[in-house]
Specification:
Shape: globular
Largest sheet: 2 strands, antiparallel
Strand content: under 5%
Number of helices: 10
Helix content: 55-70%
Oligomer: single chain
Distance between the termini: 70 Å
Order of helices and strands: EEHHHHHHHHHH
Low-confidence stretches: 276-280
Number of strands: 2
Number of domains: 2
Mean pLDDT: 88
């Protein structure tokens, strides 16, 4: 049976170019993800119905937090990639750590950077760490979705070779002659659209009234989505497959499932504002 492949849409990696100034799709994805996420987060903060009262963080505090979380994403994402995915290369080429424009960001590292930013900012401003974590992770799928689309446009992080039963398989410019799964789009759908929709529905059902529930749900669902997509994604060439055919992305997602499940259980056992009012 012949392959019914789709031609890979070769898009210029530079989204905007004005003279020597150029913004790549990858950078634009980060910028748009942060801006759209900030707008959505402000809308969540204004909704007293979602919180069962005033939100535990003021809009002006959220504005200040944006810088913190942006630095957390960039520093954590780059550090995670260096440590988890290519330590030998960066040990020999330490100056390359700062060359962010050449690619190489780890979601798991970026997530840990966000956790650090949330904890430090919350402690400094006397804000609930769990509630701030809920807001941050409620908007995170927006950035993840745009980031995966940027991966696809750049033609990186492609999928494993596909068989003839996959009519949407593509031959990526740097992925060899074999048609492959467009795993970046799978991840955009699972880690971005699906995750955002589930969390949005939970918020409408009152999840923000239980601090940590959105945070725990995000961690758990993302990890499950990432493990699923890893079955279609080609592992990084410098690592390949690890024990039993597992990938680094799968292994790093396992502790997330454990941590997320614990947070969900703790949040579910915690009394909501309405329950507290009834007990009084």
């Amino acid at each position: 049976m012949p392959f019914l492949t789709i031609t890979f849409p070769e898009i210029d990696p530079v989204a905007i170019s004005i003279g020597p100034f150029a913004i790549r799709w990858y950078a634009l994805a980060y910028i748009c993800g942060i801006v759209i996420g900030w707008i959505y987060a402000r809308a969540l903060i204004r909704s007293e119905k979602s919180w069962g009262g005033p939100a535990p963080i003021a809009p002006v505090q959220l504005d200040d937090f944006i810088l913190w979380v942006t630095l957390g994403i960039i520093i954590g994402g780059r550090t995670g990639y260096v440590l988890f995915y290519n330590p030998a290369f960066f040990l020999q080429n330490p100056a390359a750590v700062l060359k962010l424009w050449e690619g190489g960001m780890s979601f798991h590292g970026g997530f840990l950077g966000c956790v650090a930013a949330v904890m430090l900012f919350a402690l400094k401003n006397n804000i609930s760490i769990l509630s701030l974590g809920d807001i941050t992770t409620a908007v995170a799928p927006i950035g993840i979705f745009l980031g995966r689309l940027a991966n696809f446009i750049k033609g990186e992080l492609w999928g494993r070779p596909a068989d003839a039963s996959v009519p949407w398989a593509m031959v990526f410019p740097d992925g060899g002659p074999l048609p492959r799964h467009p795993s970046q789009l799978y991840e955009a759908g699972l880690e971005g659209i699906l995750l955002f929709a589930v969390l949005a529905i939970m918020i409408r059902m009152g999840a923000l009234k239980r601090p940590g529930l959105i945070l725990g749900s995000f961690i758990t669902i993302y990890a499950l989505a990432r493990i699923t997509s890893e079955f279609f994604r080609e592992p990084d060439p410098q690592l390949g497959f690890l024990w039993g055919g597992l990938t680094m992305g799968m292994l790093l997602s396992v502790p997330m499932i454990i941590a997320g499940t614990i947070l969900i259980i703790m949040a579910w056992r915690r009394e909501t504002p309405r329950q507290i009012e009834k007990s009084i």
